[in-house]
Structure formats: C-alpha cells, structure tokens
Amino acid sequence: MSGKDSRFDHLEMERTRPQAAPEPRGRTFDPAEYVTRALDLELSGDWDGALRLYSRALSSLPHLEEAWVGQLRCLVRQEDFHEAAMWAGKALEYLPKSGAILAMQAIALAGEGQLSEALALSDRAIQMSGNSPAVWLARAWALGRDKEESAGRCLRKAVEVAQDDVRWLLEAGALYLRWEKFGAALEQLQRAVTLRPALAAPWHLVGVCRLKLGMADEAEQAFSQAVRLAPGVKRYRERLEESRGVTWWTSLWRRLVRR
Fold first, then answer.
1. For residue 168, which of 74, 92, 198, 248 sits 20 to 30 Å off, Cα-Cα?
2. Rounded CA gap, 102 and 89, in Å?
3. CATH class for the domain made up of 1-162
4. Quick one: how far is CA 59 from the chain centroid?
C-alpha cells in the first residue's frame, strides 16, 4: 500500500482510528480540541497530521462540520481533488444541508476540471449558506480562470467576507497563485502573515510569490521563516534550498552585469 493510500485510510471513520501525536498521559481531548489542534497543523503546512486529527474528531462526533471542512481544505491544498470530492460526498451524508461542505465539493470538482458540475454545486451552496468565504471561493473555482472578471469578483468577495480569518485568506492566496496572479496572491498572503506571523504556511506561499515576482532575496527570507516555524515540513526545507540556489545565481548575475 502506498503512503498516499494509507493517508486516506485515516479518513475512513469505520476503520482503525488514525495514529496521531501522543497525548499527555491521563488527558483526553474532546472533538473541539482535536479540531483546534488540527487547524494549527493545517496552518503550519502539516496536512497529513491535520488530516489525522480532523479524522479523530469525526470519529467521536461525525456531525462536526468544522472538522469535515478542515479535512477537505487539506485535501484540496494537496490537490487530491478526487479524494476531496469523495469525502465531501461522505460528509454530506451526515450534514446534507451544509453549504460549506457543498462548496468544498464544488472546489474539488473544479480542481478535476468538471466546471459545469462545480458551478451547479456552487449555486446550491450559495442558496444554503449565502454570504460565506467558502461559497464565494467555490464560485471562483467553478467559474475558473477563463472567466477571469467574474471569478475575480467572487474571489475578492470571499476575501471581503473572510475579513481576518487566515484560513480563507490562505485559500484565496493559493487560488490566486494557481491562476498565476502573483501580485494579488502576495497581497492576501502578506495580510495573513501580518495577522498571524507565527504560521508557517502563509510564509511559505509568500516566498513562492516573491520568487515568481523575481524577488529572490526576499523569497529566501520568507522560506527561512517557514522552516524556522515548521522545521518538520520537508517541502519547506526543499524550497529553501532551491531558493538559495536561485539567490546565488541572481547575485552572480548582478556582479557580472555591474562589470
């Protein structure tokens, strides 16, 4: 069984409970505490760890919407769109009137390229939940980059509704990145690091934006911050090493140009 397959085994509540980090002796966490800890891991970029804790919360309380939505966000961020769509369907068995879960299912289908299906789900999500970051983000995904003006309005609406909720600012920034709108992405991600400077995931994406915009030195600083905050996340260390190579070549080129 591959590592990817075993990760998704953790999502199925009927199977063995997932193995998460050891808990303090004599302490039992309630589902809400698992969600809080999972969100910390999600925003540090440890998606697998977050998935395990969201799953543990759902093992105790399968109608906990926040845990389902967090789990689906992690799958989407890993671009595991097929699994996200499948687990959104499972979540809707428990919470059939959840606009947020329906919105995440729309995002998953859009990620797979099923834009018409995603748009139909987006319509239903808006009817259910109205003015929420998830439904406007889903609308932007469903419209797609080809409908840039309309999709952009929806994404800006998602950011407006999110206000200071870093979870959704991060998702908006990631979607702008996907659309290669690096300046707009950087704006949202820098806002996220200003609000929550101790979170690694926004710093990492700030570094990606800066690198795309030709800001090699500033990108390396952002990647270094992400590694400092979440040293156990391998992809942060790898990106830092890559950026150092880019910075070295940039410095060499500048010296040559000066001559």
1. 92
2. 8
3. mainly alpha
4. 22
Which region among 126-130, 151-155, 169-173, 217-221 has the lowest average model confidence (pLDDT)? 126-130
Listed in order, the ranges of the chain carrying CATH 1.25.40.10 are: 1-162, 164-259
Distance separating alpha carbons of residues 100 and 122, to the nearest angstrom: 10
Of residues 169, 144, 146, 142, the one with CA closest to residue 156: 169
Side chain identity at 238, as an amino acid letter?
A: E
Model's pTM, two decimal places?
Answer: 0.84
What CATH number belongs to 164-259? 1.25.40.10
pLDDT of residue 29: 74
The pLDDT of residue 1: 36
Across 155-167, average pLDDT? 94
Tell me if residue 28 falls in helix, strand or coil: coil
Looking at beta carbons, which pairs linking 3-9 to residues 24 or more positions away fall under 8 Å?
Answer: 4/80, 7/48, 7/51, 8/80, 8/83
Q: Where are the alpha helices (DSSP H) in 23-178?
A: 31-44, 47-60, 65-77, 81-94, 99-111, 115-129, 133-143, 148-162, 166-178
- Per-residue CA distances from 221 to 190, 215, 227, 228, 234 (Å): 13, 10, 10, 11, 17
Q: How many CB atoms lie within 10 A of CB 199?
A: 22
Cα torsion 190, 81, 124, 42: sign: negative
